[in-house]
Write a structure and sequence with these properties.
The chain is an alpha/beta fold. 29% of the residues lie in helices and 17% in strands. 48% of the residues are buried. It binds iron/sulfur cluster (SF4).
């Protein structure tokens, strides 16, 4: 496995509960990385030898600003390229945004601000403008992430130059809240995972409980129990109870393999995949979790 990107979910907690959130971010979510754990994981990442990029995201990482700042510095000190993803809630004005960002100047290689009608009332929020203005003044490379609305909700003219975003993927809260508004396609056409390199992932997400996620909610190991190096070396995708069927024939094969009850049509491959995984959680709770990723107690 050539793992080059590690994405810290610094916290599951967020200021918002966006309908399109993969990880069920919410003010009511639980789980935050400690500084000690961040340092341990960064050391493991160095030892692995292939990680180039470390990202801090969430949830909303700026909710724990001192921890975020120390984490970014710790990653930069270990010579990783460092990125942060935020919703920019803290950027009241460009001057205030600068105060939040100054401790990160010279340490960050990428700052992405999520902004769209699902985060704010306008497609490009005033907060996003403030983040970009302050970043420019501080020499921090910054961009925006904009998601398209599902069909039926309406659409707005796009402004700015997104580097990510685009169509919504219907997993996490998006599968529950938005999928019904999108056009549906026959379930058995979803015969591959269109988004993740499941057999040879280049990046993975790590949550505050130590879970390493191949895709949000599909766990391949726990870094608080086994070192990253061991998990990566021991990764046998075909033997993983969820990844194996997904590799063989996508979410449709997951349904067939386990005889899961299903609807006739789904919004996209992730919608079928996520819905199937929800049905499989009682059987495979060790690799389909944690509850935070499936909106336990929040839906
Ligand atoms: S199909 Fe499943 S594994 Fe692939 S990106 Fe979508 S939710 Fe993740």
């Amino acid at each position: 496995m050539n793992l080059t990107g590690l994405h810290f979910l610094l916290t599951y907690r967020c200021t918002s509960e966006c309908d399109h959130c993969f990880v069920w971010g919410s003010p009511n979510q639980q789980g935050v990385f400690t500084l000690e754990r961040i340092e341990q994981v960064l050391d493991q990442a160095r030892e692995l030898g292939t990680i180039e990029w470390v990202f801090f995201e969430g949830g909303e990482p700026f909710l724990f600003h001192p921890i975020l700042v120390r984490g970014v510095h710790a990653a930069a000190a270990r010579s990783f390229q460092v990125g942060v993803v935020t919703n920019g809630y803290w950027a009241t004005t460009a001057a205030d945004a600068r105060a939040w960002l100054e401790p990160l100047a010279g340490q960050l290689n990428s700052l992405s601000v999520s902004t769209d009608e699902l985060h704010y009332e306008e497609r490009v929020s005033s907060e996003a403008h403030h983040v970009l203005e302050a970043s420019k003044a501080l020499g921090i490379p910054a961009d925006m992430i904009l998601c398209d609305l599902p069909d039926g909700v309406g659409s707005a003219p796009r402004r700015g130059e997104p580097v990510e975003g685009g169509p919504i993927m219907y997993r996490g809260r998006a599968a529950v809240k938005l999928a019904a508004k999108a056009p549906a396609t026959a379930w058995n056409t979803f015969d591959e995972c269109p988004h993740e390199e499941l057999d040879d992932p280049g990046r993975m997400h790590l949550d505050p409980l130590g879970n390493l996620h191949l895709c949000q909610g599909i766990i391949v190991g726990n870094l608080f129990e086994r070192p990253l190096k061991e998990i990566v070396r021991g990764y046998k995708p075909k033997q993983h109870p969820i990844v194996g069927p997904l590799l063989k024939g996508g979410p449709a094969e997951l349904v067939r393999h386990y005889g899961i009850a299903h609807a006739d049509a789904y919004a996209d491959a992730c919608h079928l995949c996520y819905s199937s995984r929800v049905a499989l959680r009682p059987r495979f709770g060790d690799v389909l979790g944690p509850g935070q990723m499936y909106g336990e107690g929040l839906a």
